[in-house]
Amino acid sequence: MSNTATQTSTGGLGRLIRRYPFLPALIILVLLLALNGVFEPRSLSFRSMTGLVSTYLALMMLAVAQTYVVFSGDIDLSAGSIVSLVNVSVIALMQKWGGDGFAVIAACLVGALIGLACGLVNGIVVAGLRLQAIVATFATSIFFTGLALTVLPVAGTPAPEAYWTTYGGRFFGIPFVLYAVAAVAILLAILMRMRLTTQMLAVGDDQQAAFQTGLPVTAIRIKGYVFCGLFAALAALCITGDTASGDPLVGGKMTLYSVAAVVLGGSALAGGFGTVTGSLIGALIIGLINALVFFVGTPSEWQNFVQGLAILLALMAGILVSRGARA
Amino acid sequence: MSELIVRGARKAYGATVALSRGDLHLKPGEVHVLIGSNGSGKSTLCKIVAGSVKPDAGEVLLDGKPVTIDGPRAARALGIGIFYQELSLAARRTVAENILLPAMPVKGGIFVDRTELEERTARIIAEFQDVAGEGFAADVTVDRLRADQRQLVEIMKALASEAPILIFDEPTSALDRAQVDRFFEILRRLKQEGRAMVFISHRMDEIFSIGDRVTVIRDGATVASSAIAETNADEVIRQMVGEREALSAESKPPVPAAAGEPMLSVANLSGVGFRDVSFTVGKGEILGFGGLHGQGQSSVLRAIFGASAHHTGAIEVGGKACAARTPAEAIRNGIAYVSGDRGRDGTLTGRPILENVTPIHFLRNRLHLARPSVLTALVEGPLKALKTKFQDIGQPVNSLSGGNQQKVVIARWLIDRPSVLLLDDPTKGIDLAAKSDLFQLIRSLAAEGMGIVLYSSEDAELLANADRILVFNSGVVTRELQGEERTRYNLYHAAYEAA
């Protein structure tokens, strides 16, 4: 009875968006895919799509990482620096341990641990010591970049062949990155059902209310940063596979892209509302915009300009769609 | 079966004492009413018991054993559940998630058990389903609910804790009759089960229909506690008023000869939180707004000032129609507004005193260039008249005490005199000396011919300074107190009447 009342009070689109907040982003994604197809029909082939995913899987991971801190109303400006630090650490370790399969796996595990540790540091600094998230993680980003530069002062050390041939290779005729995407999808589906996700969103919604409710607010926020560190490390492993080399500054410019992906995906930057699925779509939107800018033949000196404009348009379109649905 | 005793609980925020001596004896199987005027410390006492406020002193005994409650989680573990007056809901989460947020059912250690969540919340919601109204369902997010429905969710959240001790801090303020009746049925059942409940309400009829005992708090201290059957509404109000009744009669201002020509007249003003408000303020008059906190007084003042919208009604300033839609318009029409919430409405934090005194001057005279020497000369007079204490006109305003900050904010209205001054609880967080300076100034401004409206949440202040008092209850003016009627007793009586 009461359900029908809510249904009639708003349109069908509004109801769908409330249930799937990433819907506007999905519409933009499909639109961009179509545009890409118009300007470069081959870009819709299985092969190019796989290439797109393998290039932007790192950004997708970083967008997921950012989402978990944004859920509880925080932000991590060091996410990209964690990517850099893990990237150079993994490269250095694999080189040191001799580049066979075992060394690769061991280095990846250590890389994940480094990501977790960075996340823990951020969590303690922001939630434990109650510093402003935006400034504190900006400071830790400089700190992590500094560490990365001591591990590998200049870009260029190559990854062992076993690593990048796996990342770029195929198994049973299916590209490795698609297995990775499937694994991440399953992982995210599991994480979405966690009590912690609901608690993070409740903290982001109203921190005081969450405290009065009896939630361990500080611990929940720290866990958000730890998740962020872990997924940033996964992003680093992807980028290592894609570029096949170490670069102490590789992640720096990815940080704000990850924030943009979260917002494009329909999450509220103030916290309390959003989905990881949306952030994945947001990262793909950024990837497709970059591809489109290339396919339409933008002169190189205009590429940044057009790319920035396109992201702005995508943001506006997303807001217009959700606003139209609410009215 | 839990018995809770609080003895000598004390809590101060800086110089402001929220609770000086809170005592409470809560027995199993009773509904214990807490009553007291605005800011008397009821909510602070409740929050101390619920663990969200840490007391400076005092002890809490649970079943005879002293306990320390060092957080909301600890309180829950001890079996204490609470309904927060300001609600503790996550707006973007669903009704079901909110109800069980404190203790989400889990399976496998980390995953939300959706089936269990749905079953348990369905049972709780079922008790209110027929009175909850349209659009209320387990899977609706809280931000899509009406105020009364949100209050029901907070009630359900408290009930879901199944705690032996339940505290309800004004749970009925937005509920309609049917919802209150249903809530009371449940309270009576819980009483049968032997639970102990604290109930706060400002509606006398509710208190006498559900309460077993009543404890009265006045100025942060517990003053009386008696069985409901052995007392009555008049007695309770007398206890809330205290002996200061006699004092306040003496400090009452003399009745002015006759209010002069109308400076501000408001007719049938309605908006969000108030309806059909009409009054006139004469030249040289101080009109008081009284009643419980948040009954529409601030909303009316902000609507006149153009800081929030009103739907219908007419406003005249000095005989000229003035329907200001922005504060800038209102200011140019000669209206001044001083709010007690200095951080939000008053000071430009971090900026020098000089800049804090001059913005109205710039606005009214449409100035665009600042000439420090001219401005400094302009500013000196008003600051001196208010006895503002500061070292240097260039020091940031937030380096001053609360009282001096408020003087700086008031000084900005004195360079170009307005014809109407609206005071919205202006003495919040100000020391006594500054208060008396402020009221002296306000009286002298009135004597110079300004029309003044004063809303104060402190009844003593209102009684001592207002020539006439309009008592607000649920957004409407329920009574006007004039001349000899201006007593604490009458003020409370009008404020606590069932609306």
Automatic annotation (TrEMBL), chain A:
Membrane-related topology note: Multi-pass membrane protein
Top-level taxonomic group: Bacteria
Main location per the UniProt record: membrane
Subcellular location: Cell membrane
UniProt keyword list: Cell membrane, Membrane, Transmembrane, Transmembrane helix
InterPro entries, per the entry: ABC_transp_permease
CDD domains associated with the record: TM_PBP1_transp_AraH_like
The protein, known as: ABC transporter permease
UniProtKB/TrEMBL annotation, chain B:
UniProt superkingdom: Bacteria
ABC transporter domain location: 4-244, 258-499
Residues making up the signal peptide according to the UniProt record: none
GO molecular function: ATP binding
Keywords for the protein's UniProt record, in alphabetical order: ATP-binding, Nucleotide-binding, Repeat, Sugar transport, Transport
Stated family: Belongs to the ABC transporter superfamily.
PANTHER family per record: CARBOHYDRATE TRANSPORT ATP-BINDING PROTEIN MG119-RELATED, GALACTOFURANOSE TRANSPORTER ATP-BINDING PROTEIN YTFR
Stated name of the protein: Sugar ABC transporter ATP-binding protein
Organism: Mesorhizobium retamae
